[in-house]
């Protein structure tokens, strides 16, 4: 797959707004090496109208895999730089996850774009997140949060700066405090993590626990992101398994 087809065919609403501007700057720095044999830019002319799309719309279009992908690249760059340094393990995590999701060819294109995005300074976290919040479905935004915690944890621990940055992103994305704590608990070890994952207190009754499990299983079900493609369903399955594991742990502890 050519870089032309990947950029031109994979993106929808992210071609507009602040995310589109960031992508445009990244693409601009790649143009010299990324022209076809006729010397024309690698963004297909057939998608030129798409490139001028504004993200301010009352109708939320369905998020395409490419929209999720570039949103993830930008937010990943913000989190990786949150503690003032770029750990190679975090960069390797991003590359590995993209290879697992998309295969080597597409992952290589994505990572080249990621490196250019990573060079940009003064990216507005708020503007990027507000575009994502307005255009992306809630289930997909939860999947973004899960990935960002995975990046932060890739070097062995989540620093306070990284956690603070992810918390800021969550707020801008419209992620509730309970949803944030649920996903965060999947990356920490503590005695009450299972309860946090299910978004309940340790004093919850058995009926409340069962109801919470059904609610969370529905919220994190992989089918919620089926429109993003099989590659992102795999990531969603991880959250789903952790909800199941949390419920089974509580069942064992409480004996029901």
Give a written overview of the molecule:
This is Molecular chaperone DjlA. Keywords: Membrane, Transmembrane, Transmembrane helix. The protein contains 13 helices and no strands. The chain folds into 2 domains: 173 residues, no CATH class; 68 residues, DnaJ domain (Helix Hairpins). It is 64% helix and 0% strand. It is globular and about 60 Å long. It has 256 residues and is an all-alpha fold.
Draw up the topology in text:
Elements: H1 3-10, H2 17-28, H3 48-51, H4 65-80, H5 88-102, H6 104-119, H7 125-135, H8 138-153, H9 160-173, H10 177-185, H11 193-197, H12 206-219, H13 230-254
Summarize the structure.
Residues 193-255 form the J domain. Helices cover 64% and strands 0% of the residues. With 256 residues, it is mainly α.
Domains, number: 2
Shape: globular
Rounded mean pLDDT is 81
Largest sheet: none
**Radius of gyration from the alpha-carbon trace, in angstroms:** 19 Å
Number of helices: 13
Fill in the keyword field for this structure.
single chain; 256 residues; mainly alpha; Helix Hairpins; 2 domains; 13 helices; 64% helix; globular
């Amino acid at each position: 797959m050519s870089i032309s087809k990947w950029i031109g065919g994979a993106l929808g609403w992210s071609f507009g707004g602040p995310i589109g501007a960031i992508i445009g700057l990244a693409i601009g720095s790649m143009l010299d090496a990324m022209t076809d044999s006729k010397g024309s830019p690698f963004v297909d002319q057939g998608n030129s109208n798409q490139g001028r799309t504004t993200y301010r719309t009352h109708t939320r279009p369905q998020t395409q895999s490419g929209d999720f992908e570039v949103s993830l690249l930008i937010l990943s760059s913000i989190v990786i730089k949150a503690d003032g340094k770029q750990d190679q393990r975090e960069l390797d995590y991003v590359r590995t996850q993209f290879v697992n999701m998309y295969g080597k060819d597409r992952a290589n294109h994505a990572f080249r774009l990621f490196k250019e995005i990573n060079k940009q300074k003064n990216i507005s976290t708020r503007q990027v997140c507000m575009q994502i919040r307005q255009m992306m479905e809630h289930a997909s935004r939860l999947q973004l949060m899960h990935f960002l915690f995975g990046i932060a944890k890739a070097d062995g621990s989540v620093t306070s700066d990284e956690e603070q940055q992810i918390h800021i992103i969550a707020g801008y994305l419209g992620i509730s405090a309970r949803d944030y704590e649920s996903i965060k608990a999947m990356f920490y070890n503590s005695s009450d993590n299972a309860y946090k994952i299910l978004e309940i207190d340790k004093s919850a009754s058995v009926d409340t626990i069962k109801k919470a499990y059904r609610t969370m299983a529905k919220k994190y079900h992989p089918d919620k992101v089926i429109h993003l493609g099989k590659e992102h369903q795999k990531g969603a399955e991880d959250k789903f398994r952790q909800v199941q594991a949390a419920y089974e742990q509580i069942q064992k502890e409480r004996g029901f």
